[in-house]
Amino acid sequence: MSVLKITKENFEKEVMQSDKPILLDFWASWCGPCKMVGPVVEQVAEETIDVARVGKINVDEEQELAQAFKVMSIPTLVVMKEGKVVKKHSWCPVQADAFINAPVIKYYDWSKIWHTSLK
Q1: Do 14 and 4 form a contact (C-beta atoms < 8 A)?
Q2: Active-site positions?
Q3: N or C end of the chain, less CB within 10 A?
Q4: Res. 74 pLDDT band, cuts 50 70 90
Q5: How many domains does the chain have?
Q6: Rounded distance between C-alpha atoms, residue 61 and residue 52, angstroms
């Protein structure tokens, strides 16, 4: 399976200790925009399987993680590398099309994140 379910219990191992950059999708099952973004996130997971990891965090089940990342709206996408946040993008209803087509999701040159130093 290419998309990981991230929980409070596995966060340290799967995210903080990851040897690859990771895209985190903060979502909820009742969230319409999350359902729109979900397939794109899964596509990114398939396309980057050798160079990156992708995880989903259900904000209803993992409220502590959502608070730790200061998630105020969903979906929120976070890219982490070497245990640090390097990109964060949150949903804005006024800019729905811009979010779906945001560089952090669809057209982003993932090789820049995965293969360059962002220290």
Answers
A1: yes
A2: 31, 34
A3: N
A4: very high
A5: 1
A6: 24
